[in-house]
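Can you make up a polypeptide sequence alongside its tokenized fold?
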Amino acid sequence: MNSRRLAPLALLAAGSLALAACSGGSGDGGGGGGGEALDSLSIMAPYLSATPPEADDPVGKKLSEVAGLDLDMQWVPNAEYGDRTNVVLAGDDIPDVMVIQQKSQGFVQTAEAGGFWDLTDYLASGDYPNLVTENEDVQQASSVNGKVYGVYRARDVVRTSISIRKDWLKNLGLDEPTNTDELMAVAKAFTEDDPDGNGKDDTYGMIIPAWGASIGTGSPYDAIETWFGAGNVWKDDGGQLVPSFTTPEWKQALDYEKTLIQSGYVNKDYATMDGTTGWNEPFLNGKGGIIIDVQSRAAQLADLFKDQDPKTYDQKVALVGNIAGPNGDFALPTPGYSGFLAIPKASVQTEDQLAQVLEALDALAGKDAQILENNGIEGDNFTVEDGYAVFDKSKQDYTDVVSGSWAQIGTNVAGFEAYKPKPETKYDEELAQERLDLQEKDLQKAVFNPAGALVSKTYSTNGVQLDQIIADARIQYISGQIDDAGLDAAIAQWKSSGGDQVTAEMNELYGQLG
């Protein structure tokens, strides 16, 4: 455990300690120097595997060698990570680096009060090439009101796609849809034209699970609304931010969704279907034929079909990217990151120490470290064939620990360089390449949230309640429980309950981004 401890970050956030006195200089280039050099690096991170790595884990030892500092890992179960983060922020035992999973109110307050290093200028200096982002939109989105308080953990920027029963398209003589009108026609045909040829009226077009959260959660509704030109959570309208659900394009998209549901082209239990396990089964069992979700869903479905019949599984799933809407051709991206690695000033007190930490993180983002973090140790639990990783199935439990823990400290902001698993068949390889091609194509038309970097104080405190108003109204409208007047009333309620204040705060911050 790191012994260099000062006051809790919560006290820093409250202004109870003179930050300049303990930091040896600000994160924007001032001061610096002094303080003892670090001989270890404590990192708090979540693990998603059944168990965390052992203290003498061989990957950890090799990563310490790569980093040039002994890694003192503080592993926390992912399900408990948010609560533990709050405890640590309020405590006096602060690690040198923390994985921050979301821009919570506590983190934002602490960061803006000076409790975390502002890395904006350091990362822009070019001194840490593995920490230089491939995508400025993602870098901006991961910031807090334009200031970068952590090295973000890169994820696929474009994942939204449509998985369609390829055999049903073939049976009905249909092409893959390229726009929302064609998607509606496919959903109609899959519902009414007996796509499985069994002579029964027992199919429907689109599978949608329960999605209680509001806009911006990657739901099928979000995708459709983006395709219609409603923006992505927020929309820049002549230099001003407006909530996407106040745009005419959003209402147009809702009417489209309502038609899908009211026509019976969607599963009847769309408001209650289990979103974790529910929607694969009807696709596999020939009940529904369209899923709007992440690209990996297609690969997952193909694998499940392979279990059913290895000879025909390659004829079951078609993968289609983001499609055009009536107002243009847009794609729904992800935020492009999953949290970030932040550096508390309570532990890393000087710019010299900060340089050590950034050098270590730069090394941990290099190719050798990425392979260790994502694959393990070559010759131990995997080998390399044709540029792919082939894993030793007898050591699968260990491989799961590697990918479920060490990968969580990987940033990959300059690109992913670890080995990908070797595809089992030519079709698997073709599907993987198709995903990459669609990502490249859809990135060109991706609609990023223009307010992704912004943190409204009112939203930080009232966001859950405000989101629920719109979430409820959307489901109620497309299900026919409320009409246009009811939808307008819900939006008015959102505005009067703090939404107008959120919009004002977001626009003030938006203007400051420059």
Observations:
- The first strand starts at residue 40 and ends at 47.
- Confidence is low (pLDDT under 50) at residues 1-7, 10-34.
- The two ends are 42 Å apart (CA to CA).
